[in-house]
Amino acid sequence: MNFGYEAKTIKQPEFEAQLFFDYSNERLLVNDFSGNIDDLLRAINKYVEKYSFTKIIIKTRPQHWQELLSKGLELEAIFKSYFNGIDCYAMVFYKETKRRTSHYWVQENDILISILEKDRQSFLTTPPSTYHFRRATKEDVVQLSSLYDHIFKLYPTPMNQPEYIHYQMNSGNIFYLVEHNKQIVSAASADINKTFNHAELTDCATLPEHRKYGLMKKILSFLEADLKQQGITCVFSIARALSYGMNAALYQLGYEYGGRMINNCYIFDKMEDMNVWTKDLPV
After folding, report:
1. What percent of the chain shows pLDDT beyond 90?
2. What is 5-96's CATH number?
3. What is the Rg, in whole angstroms, of the alpha carbon atoms belonging to the chain?
4. What is 140-209 written as a DSSP string?
5. CATH number of 105-280
6. Number of H helices and number of E strands within the chain?
7. Residue 29: closest CA among 6, 4, 11
8. Tens digit of pLDDT for each residue in 258-274?
9. Which of 30, 222, 227, 259: disulfide with 232, CB 3.0–4.6 Å?
10. Which keywords label this protein (predicted)?
C-alpha cells in the first residue's frame, strides 16, 4: 500500500542504516545508523539525486553529531532520551536555498518566548460533561479521517484516508479521541517505537469551535498514561511553530523545547517549520 513514503534498511560492508524515504515531503530521514559516516553520506547523496529530496535529516547519537557538523551538516533539534534514554541529535542538510529559508522565524520565536515566559499549571481543566474521552477503535477510522480532512488542507501523512488510519492501528499505534453529541471533535495518536521505548504524540486535531476547553491536553495525558503502562519511557511531539495553542499545551504538560526544524513538512496550508518537544515518562 502506497502512502507516499517508504522505509528501507541499507546494509553495506562499511555501514548499516535505517532510511525513511518521505516522498510527499521531499525529504530523506536516516532514523538510525552504524559504521562509516563518509560512506553513509556518499550513499545518501545518491538517493538524494535520484529522488530530488531537498532536505536530509540524520538522527544520531551524542558521539557522532560533532563529526557530522564538521562535514557541513547543521544541528537542528535535540530529542531528549530518544534512543533508550540516550539523546538524539537531528543533523540536517539542505539541497535548496528555498527549503533552508524560514519566512516566519521571528514570528515563531515571538510565539515560543511568550509561551516559555508563562508559569506551568499542574492541573487540567475539566471540560463540560457532554465531552467523552476514550481510546479509539477501528470502527472510528471513517469519522477520524473526516476530522483530519476537515481541519487540514495539507498534512504530512494521508490521515484523511480511513485505510491509512486502519493501517496505523494495525501497526500498533494508538489513538484517543473526544466525542460530543456522538461526533468526534478532537483526537491524537501515539506512534510507538518499542525498539527504543519512545513514542511520538502526533495527529493532534480539534475542531475550532471546541478548542476552548483544553481537550487536547487531556487527550495527551490519556495517551501518556497508556504509553507508560506499555513501558514507554520517552515521548516527544513535533508541533507547528506557528500554532500557539499546540505549543502552549505541550509546554503546560511539562514538555521541554528541543529546537525548530525548518520547512520540515507540508501541514495545514504550506511547508512549515516545526518545534520539537520532549518529555521523560518516569518508570
Report:
1. 96
2. 3.40.630.30
3. 19
4. GHHHHHHHHHHH-SB-SS-TT-HHHHHHHHHTT-EEEEEEETTEEEEEEEEEEETTTTEEEEEEEEE-GG
5. 3.40.630.30
6. 8, 13
7. 6
8. 999 999 999 999 999 99
9. 227
10. Transferase
